Amino acid sequence: MITRIETGPRMSQAVLHGETVYVAGQVARDASADVAGQTRQVLEAIDRLLLRAGTDKTRILSATVYLADIATFAEMNAVWEAWVAKGQAPARATVEARLALPAYKVEIVIIAALP
Amino acid sequence: MITRIETGPRMSQAVLHGETVYVAGQVARDASADVAGQTRQVLEAIDRLLLRAGTDKTRILSATVYLADIATFAEMNAVWEAWVAKGQAPARATVEARLALPAYKVEIVIIAALP
Amino acid sequence: MITRIETGPRMSQAVLHGETVYVAGQVARDASADVAGQTRQVLEAIDRLLLRAGTDKTRILSATVYLADIATFAEMNAVWEAWVAKGQAPARATVEARLALPAYKVEIVIIAALP
After folding, report:
1. Using an 8 Å Cβ cutoff, are B100 and A73 in contact?
2. What subunits make at least 3 CB pairs under 8 angstroms with C?
3. Angstroms from A98 CA to nearest CA on chain C
4. Is C33 buried (19+), middle (13-18) or exposed (0-12) by CB count in 10 A?
5. Rounded distance, CA A72 to CA B100, Å?
6. CATH tag for A2-113 (out of 3.30.1330.40, 3.30.420.40, 3.90.70.10, 3.30.230.70)
7. Going residue by residue through chain A (115 aa), what tens digit of pLDDT does each one get?
8. Predicted TM-score of the model (pTM)
């Protein structure tokens, strides 16, 4: 009834339950990128995890976007809006928060529906 | 199976799935108001979206409250507690975070049940 | 269909709906403790609420960890990893945020499955 993807001692990268999947906060693999580049990496990581969960970005229910610097809101949004499935945007909240490493500029948490 | 309310290129204001609705982070329409006034506006926006989703504040499961200044905790709470349905308060977390515009003092994210 | 645990005028400590329980953000009872001590108290509070909800830490779906100082990430994680059920770690996000009282060093929000 609960299925976990890429489970470690600290967290799982995604957890499936019923018709819902909870994706862990995703950050950039290469934290030297700027906020646009990091957002692209984060969204690629989300695509990959949604695929492993058997769903995709057309079924995202909710997104929480944490920006290390809220002044980068527009740069993040440009990448976000190019990525979102047309007509299928999730509910979203975006706030400023320092992230686990000082180099991280953006972290995104997703809840999605399973087909 | 997924129904979206007020969908744009960036986000939907609410997304319904199964018996749950995810409401996007709501902020004040008039950001010149103080934290009490902004909280009132945010809760009105939430009432409106819950109504459109076919539910209401008696069925809120979870709330996340972001305050631009945690020192306004008491002012926000006074408005919040006057609004919450008696005996039907949701699980809640409140933390400080800078919001999308410097004038925003409070943003609230809701997950609610559908009847 | 909705069951609330320890409901007050502001919030409920946990809200059950369908096969999911939403636990309110938990903070330390004794805020004079360091971040490791506060994390231990928070996890005990979560264990207690999950038990009252009829579930336990083997069924946590999602965790959001707020640290007042992200520099305490490692201390929090040491306590967290000792507590997490092996092979059953939830999806998780950790960000920095000031909390309701200046003395609070960590707050954790949990969504869990009911058996």
Report:
1. yes
2. A, B
3. 5
4. middle
5. 10
6. 3.30.1330.40
7. 999 999 999 999 999 999 999 999 999 999 999 999 999 999 999 999 999 999 999 999 999 999 999 999 999 999 999 999 999 999 999 999 999 999 999 999 999 999 9
8. 0.98
